[in-house]
Specification:
Elements lengths: L2 H20 L3 H5 L12 H19 L25 H20 L7 E3 L9 E3 H25 L9 H4 L11 H15 L2 H9 L1
Antiparallel strand pairs: 1-2
Helix pairs in contact: 1-4, 1-5, 3-4, 3-5, 7-8
């Protein structure tokens, strides 16, 4: 699998996540679920952080063409305190970064070209563009899993965002596809409250 294919999956998965969080109560999105965290405390913090990291590494560092977040109010990207921002503002910024990354990858960039991690430091470490892109994508996967866990802490069932949902093979004639199998497993876990439920929590 190449970078462009994997990013296409991530973009589809994040769209599903965005649709899901739009339906959550505002107080759930702002609730501090990581009390001991130094930087991030709630779901909106992590949504904003995922986009900031993609914008920084791909568009500011690798391309010198970063996206300026839509003006609302200044924020510290290290400690975003995203409860001060409307969810629609965060998602609008995220959509703009997503579209910009998709256009960049569609242009077939040279993935082996070197990228300095600190542009104004002659001694800065250098990686390939391919390595930087994979860093950004795996960073998102890690924090998306964290968001899914927080959603469960709030008593909700997060959407199924695994890769095979978006690249699933056709179901056998008369059989169930992977999405149906997952939904049945989730329902079984809720009804039985036993091992199936615990397993579902670990996977998501």
């Amino acid at each position: 699998m190449n970078v462009r294919e994997y990013y296409h999956y991530l973009a589809a998965a994040r769209e599903q996540l965005w649709q899901f969080v739009r339906a959550l109560p505002q107080e759930d999105l702002d609730r501090d679920l990581i009390g001991s965290g130094e930087r991030f405390h709630n779901i909106k913090d992590l949504l904003l952080h995922i986009t900031d990291v993609e914008n920084h590494w791909i568009h500011v560092i690798a391309r010198d063409d970063g996206v300026r977040p839509p003006h609302e109010r200044p924020y510290n990207w290290v400690r975003p305190q995203a409860q001060q921002h409307d969810l629609n503002w965060i998602l609008s910024y995220s959509q703009e970064v997503t579209h910009k990354t998709e256009r960049f990858l569609d242009s077939a960039p040279e993935l082996e070209r070197p990228v300095k991690l600190v542009q104004d430091d002659p001694a800065s470490a250098t990686v390939t563009l391919d390595q930087l892109l994979w860093h950004v994508m795996t960073h998102e996967v890690r924090h998306t899993a964290q968001i899914a866990m927080m959603v469960r802490q709030l008593g909700h069932t997060p959407p199924w965002l695994d890769y095979l949902r978006f690249a699933r093979p056709a179901a056998p004639l008369g059989g169930k596809d992977l999405a149906e199998e997952h939904d049945l497993a989730e329902e079984s876990g809720r009804c039985e409250g036993g091992a199936a439920g615990r397993e579902g929590e670990e996977v998501a």
